[in-house]
TrEMBL record:
Lineage: Bacteria, Pseudomonadati, Pseudomonadota, Gammaproteobacteria, Alteromonadales
CDD domains according to UniProt: NUDIX_MutT_NudA_like
Nudix hydrolase domain ranges (all copies): 1-125
Name of the protein: 8-oxo-dGTP diphosphatase
Sites where the protein binds Mg(2+): G36, E56
GO biological process, one term: DNA replication
Enzyme Commission identifier(s): 3.6.1.55
Length: 129
């Protein structure tokens, strides 16, 4: 089974977080997600997160804080999500790759459809808000 390590950024501003909609033609397409992407060989989580968030939502990450780690088996692939809080950044996030994105209240995250692996992230964010 394919193992994928992913750096995930919870981009926060006060009581809101920035989320993106996955393209329909991708794994888990049409669902909302916290931005990020695959960790390339030789990259640290912080390096991958900085690169991915610049490419995907056009922000510059200045620092992150480790939030949690999740392993999830989707059947066709096993993902390991390395999740970090990103509150120190510059630029205004937007769908730099043409994807839909939005600032949403953390309290409203359950109103959006996310991949199964993200449920634990949302639950922890809701507990802390």
């Amino acid at each position: 089974m394919k193992q994928v390590d992913v750096a995930v950024g919870i981009i926060k501003r006060e009581s809101q977080t920035y989320i993106c909609k996955r393209p329909e033609d991708k794994h888990q397409g049409g669902l909302w997600e916290f931005p990020g992407g695959k960790i390339e060989v030789g990259e640290s989580v912080a390096q991958a997160l900085s690169r991915e968030l610049h490419e995907e939502v056009a922000i510059r990450v200045h620092s992150t804080e480790e939030f949690m780690r999740i392993e999830h088996d989707y059947g066709d692939k096993h993902v390991c999500l390395h999740i970090h809080i990103v509150a120190d950044f510059s630029g205004e996030p937007h769908g730099a790759e043409g994807q839909q994105g939005a600032w949403v209240d953390i309290a409203a995250l359950n109103d959006y459809a996310f991949p199964e692996a993200n449920v634990a992230i949302i639950n922890k964010l809701l507990e802390q808000s």
